[in-house]
Amino acid sequence: MFDLGWTELLLIGIVALIVVGPKDLPGMFRTLGRFTGKMKNMAREFQRAMNDAADEAGMKDVAKDLKSATSAKSMGLDKLNEAADKFEKWDPSKAVKREPGPATAAMTEERAEQAKKIRENAAKTAEARKAAEAAAAAPDAATADGAPKTAPVPDPAAPKPGPAAGDDSK
């Protein structure tokens, strides 16, 4: 209630000793203690009377209903907090690795076959380009009009070689 520290109490005691005198000081403290006790009893009785009145008016039920209505559990916030805790504690380096299912395994095999075909086709195209460059770089005899012979340059707009029209391996 009052925020008094030891230094303030000591100062009050010294002032009381000087004002009241050493002879009447014990009686004054005794009277002060009785007065403080009576005040505490009155406060306790008042609090008890207020609680009884609240019980009779049904305030405890209302307070209980309000507490249950605003509780984290009834709102589902407890599950949300659990999920947030799990997310905060989650370590992606320790993630659980699962075996792929049969459909995933089949798709993986199909994609591996497609990748193999793409690599083979790219290798064939690269070999053809290297052969064309080597043919162009080889020293040939001059043509009849005296100009050096050059290899044909592939047209960038020309269609690239790909799977046949009837090939269903995608």
From TrEMBL:
InterPro entries: TatA/B/E, TatB. The gene is tatB. The keyword NADP does not apply. It comes from Psychromarinibacter halotolerans. Keywords: Cell membrane, Membrane, Protein transport, Translocation, Transmembrane, Transmembrane helix, Transport. This is Sec-independent protein translocase protein TatB. Residues 86-100, 108-132 have a biased composition (Basic and acidic residues). It is a single-pass membrane protein. Residues 151-162 have a biased composition (Pro residues). Belongs to the TatB family.
